[in-house]
Design a protein that fits this description.
By secondary structure, the protein is an alpha/beta fold. The protein folds into 2 domains: about 5-200, Alpha-Beta Complex (2-enoyl-CoA Hydratase, Chain A, domain 1), CATH 3.90.226; about 205-265. It contains 13 helices and 9 strands. It has a 6-stranded mixed β-sheet, sandwiched between helices. Strands 5-7-8 form a 3-stranded mixed β-sheet. β2, α1 and β3 (about 50-55) form a beta-alpha-beta unit. It is globular and about 65 Å long.
Length: about 270
């Protein structure tokens, strides 16, 4: 498909999109990020309900914009590819019904972090570092990283990361609620794909609607958000697929199964 990005489909409804640019350790060259966007679009158009974003470069997940491309862009010089890939990736992650899991297997920085913050879920390996070093480069955090991060982990630590450019460990981000799962080295992608496979087995309309509800809730005041929750509920809950699933669940309760057996018996 491309020089730096591969698309695999490890399970029904699941896409694994991997960026591998070892020459520059997965810094975000314009061409590679554009290919990442194209792969996510192809995954969605091919039926993916959950997409895992992974790295093929050991010790590195996605890093900030490759500074050669960034500097050249502002100087009107030649760059490696179209310059709309970064925002295309953000839109693909946040404005579609595809649930996105970041499988963070190595250090991540700047725009790479921002792609991770935009994802719905994050799996990170022990010891990896998250950083927003833009202030040390002399530029700004440009793709909503400050806005999303402050909602994920709070203003205090976000201020430290943004104003001083210091890195935070996965363990610290996990403690603050910015990472869903903290896993051992070498297992982030495997864990994320396994989780994605389970999520893809849920009702597709419900899964997409719940993602939309979460995203809307970030943009609205509480009263509007509550009303929007009800609107989405009404939109999906009366459909035949939802009614069929309700009947199946109720039948389990009628058969004497416990709450745990009904909902989570097959989960690891």
């Amino acid at each position: 498909m491309a020089d730096f990005v591969t698309l695999e489909r490890p399970a029904e409804g699941v896409a694994l999109v991997t960026m591998t640019n070892p020459e520059i350790n997965n810094f975000g060259s314009w061409v590679a990020i554009y290919e990442l966007w194209e792969a996510m679009k192809e995954a969605r158009e091919g039926g993916a309900r959950v997409t895992v974003l992974a790295s093929g470069v050991e010790g590195h997940w996605f890093h900030h914009a490759w500074l050669r491309d960034l500097s050249n862009m502002f100087q009107g010089k030649e760059v490696t590819g179209p310059n709309d890939g970064w925002f295309g990736c953000i839109d693909e992650i946040t404005k579609t019904n595809v649930v996105t899991i970041a499988a963070i297997s190595g250090d991540t920085s700047g725009g790479g972090c921002e792609l991770g913050w935009a994802c719905d879920l994050r799996v990170a390996e022990e010891g990896v570092l998250f950083s927003q070093p833009e202030v040390r480069i002399g530029v700004g955090v440009g793709m909503g990283g400050a806005s999303r991060l402050v909602r994920l982990i709070g203003r205090t630590i976000t201020a430290e990361m943004i104003l001083d450019g210091v890195p935070m460990t996965a363990e610290r981000i996990y403690q603050l609620g910015g990472v869903n799962k903290l896993v051992s080295k070498g297992t982030a992608t495997e864990t994320a794909v396994k989780w994605a496979t389970r999520l893809a087995g849920h009702s597709a309309p419900a899964l997409g609607a719940m993602k939309r509800m979460l995203n809307d809730a970030q943009e609205m005041i509480l009263s509007e958000s509550v009303m929007n929750d009800q609107r989405v509920f009404q939109e999906i809950s009366g459909k035949p697929e939802a009614i069929e699933q309700m009947e199946k669940v109720q039948a389990k309760f009628d058969a004497g199964m416990s709450f745990q057996e009904t909902y989570w018996a097959d989960d690891d």
